[in-house]
């Protein structure tokens, strides 16, 4: 049981390091496009 926990712990640490590395070094830019949302003014309908 102890070896299984060590293996899982190492796997979790490796996955966390991979995620941090991906977040730091991947050049992922958010798509930039204008978003327009029509809003209704509730006071204008009175």
Give a description of the structure.
This protein is mainly α. It has one helix at residues 2-25. It contains 1 helix and no strands. The longest helix has 24 residues, at 2-25. It is elongated, with a radius of gyration of 24 Å.
List the helices and strands and how they pair.
Layout (H helix, E strand, L loop, with lengths): L1 H24 L21
Report Rg.
24 Å
Secondary structure tally: strands: 0
Quote the beta fraction.
under 5%
Would you tell me the overall average pLDDT? 87
Helical region count?
Answer: 1
Could you state the order of secondary-structure elements as H and E?
H
What ranges have pLDDT less than 50 throughout 5 or more consecutive residues?
none
- What's the story with the biggest beta sheet? none
Shape estimate: elongated
Helix content range? 40-55%
SS class: mainly alpha
End-to-end C-alpha gap: 71 Å
